[in-house]
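For anyone still unconvinced, we reproduce a single protein record, the chain in one-letter code, the fold tokenised, and leave readers to judge:
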Amino acid sequence: MRFLRESYIVFRRQLRMNLRNPAWVLIGAFQPVLYLLLFGPLLKPLIGALGVENEYTFFVPGMLVQLGLFGAFFAGFGLIAEWRDGVVEAERVTPASRTALLMGRLWRDLLQLFVQALILVGLGYLLGMRAPLRGIVLGIVLTLLAGGACAAASNALALTTKSEDVMAPVINVVMMPVLLLSGILLPMSLGPSWLQTASDYMPVKHMVNAVRNSFLGDFTVDKVLWGSLWTVALFVLAVWWGTRTFRKENA
């Protein structure tokens, strides 16, 4: 109970800060909406190769994962500002659990991601996407876990670098190969064999495949299992890293 109370106090403060300046929330939701409206129609000629009835049934799951990963990756920038203002140090001198200091922030990020995911799925349905309810639920759960992993890693990176100038290029270096090799925008089967082989070593590709297959209602394939395992593993590892960073004496 004490852990939940401490996490809630941090969550409430973070949520209030977001509500005072909701611009970043709106911007984060607006980008995948633009992808749906401007990039989605380009996939229409590939419907036969994709094996789906509507291009958005393929595209929306990829956009969900992109929203979870790339949106959450920027969560640490706010933590750098808090560290600079002395907020983090003030929290650390309290007896609050270091895990609670991280989880309270993750709850804020996951709530924001959940609202954005609902908007994205709703728009996808308006554009013709069709997916079973349980597939959507599983896809959103995997998206939240992936986003939680990235938010935790972003917070850990923020307290490690303590500089936006260092953190920004690091994120850009990570994001580019992830975006190109994960199959978020286009299926990797369209690329040459060497590119497909390289993408097999990208955990995010398996996460994207898991969400896509869940939206197709296919829960029996290994893609869903491996993607789910990768998602859970990365979430646990990132939360451990984030908690460990908060516990450091020089944080």
Q: What stands out?
A: The mean pLDDT is 82. Residues 2-247 form one domain. The chain has twelve helices and no strands.
